[in-house]
Amino acid sequence: MLKGKDIQLGELRKDYFTNRIVLTSSEKNEPPKLRKEDKHIAKKKSIEPKCSLCPGNEKKTKPADMVLIQKEGALIKMSDEEDDPVKGWIIRVIPSNKPAVTPTPERAYSDRPLYSEPSHGHHYIMITSPNHYEDFTNMSIEQLINVLTSMQDKVRGLYGQKKVSYVAVVMNIGKEASAKYDHPHLEIITLPCLPPIIEQEALAAQKSMNELGICPMCAVINVEVGGPRQILATENFAAIAPWASSQSYEFWIIPKTHKTSFLKSTQKEISDLALILRCTLGGMSRALDTPPFNLVFHLSSEKKTTRQLHWHIEVYPQKSRLGGLEKGMGVYFNQIKPEQVAGELGEYSRHELAKIIGIK
Ligand SMILES: [Zn+2]
Ligand SMILES: [Zn+2]
After folding, report:
1. How far is the CA of 279 from the centre of ligand 1 (A)?
2. 83 within domain boundaries
3. Which ligand is in closest contact with the Cα of 309?
4. Among the bound ligands, the one closest to the CA of 16
5. Per the domain annotation, does 202 fall within a domain?
6. Whole-model pTM?
7. From 14's CA, which of 91, 159, 330, 346 has a CA 20 to 30 Å away?
8. Among the residues of the chain, which ranges form H helices?
C-alpha cells in the first residue's frame, strides 16, 4: 500500500471515489501566502452597528421561525411573533432575504436544450452565535453542540416538507469565501433534486458496496487513520487531508465507523464532533491566520429511497482562485501536498485540543 514515505513529487492523483484529477507540483513549493480578509481579522473592533444579524437588530430580518434561548441552564426553543422578536437568543434561524430557492417559484417546466423546472425549496440562515466575532474556529464546545443539535432539528423538520429531495448545509466565512454576511452563520437550503457531487459519491458508494462489499469511505478510514494524512482523531471521528485534495489545505472530518445518517448521531457523537470541529478549525485558523473558508456537510439524503453515503464534512480554507484548467476541464492543480498539510494543521489542532481539554 502506498503511504506517505513513498510519494514522489509531480503526481497525478485521483479522488477516492470519482475520477477527479489533481496534479501535484513537480517542484518543491513554499506554501502559498493565504490572503487575510480585512473584515474577518478585525475581531477586536466593536460590533458593527450596521450588522442586521447582531442582537438588537432582529426587526431588520424576517421573523425567525426557530430561536433558541437559555433559561436556568435549560435550552428553550421558540419562534418570533410578527413585530415581536425573541430577545436574548443564543441561536436564531431566519428565512434568507435573498433565497436561492422559494416555496412558490414562478418558472414553468421546459425541455432541453432550454431545460427548466420550478426551483421549489426553503432557504434559511442559522445565526450560530449572538457574538459577531464568534464562529466555529473560536466558539465554546457547548455552543457548538447547541448549533449542531439545532441543525439536526432544523434539517429533520425540512425533510418533512413537500418537494424536498435534499437539505444542503454549508458555512461560508469571509467575503472571499462568498459569505453573505460578516456575522457567522450556516446556510440551510432545500433542493428538489440531489446535488451532483452528493449523487456521484452516493453512486460510487453503492457501486463499491455491490462489487466489493465495502463502503469506499470505510476503506478510506482504514487506510488514512494513523497515516501521514491524518490531522487529528477523536473517539468517533478522524480529520484527514484527503489524498487528492483539490484545494490547498482542504481537510475532511469523517465518522470512523460506517454512518450514513447525520440525523441519527447520538448526543455523545455530537459532542465528539463539536470537539474535533473546534480543534481542527481553531488549528486551521491559527496555522493560516484566520483565512476565509467554506465548510460543507456531505450528508445522505434522508429520503428512504435515495442512495446513501458515509457522511462527512469537507473544509476548504480560502476560496481558491480557480484557473481555466479547473473551471473548464475539471483538472485541479494543488501546490501543497496533503501530507504537508496534515503535518502543519495536525500540530496546531493538537495544541487546540490540549488547550480545550486543559480548560475542562
Ligand atoms: Zn453581527
Ligand atoms: Zn462507510
Report:
1. 24
2. no
3. 2
4. 2
5. yes
6. 0.91
7. 346
8. 38-41, 141-159, 196-212, 216-224, 267-287, 324-329, 338-359
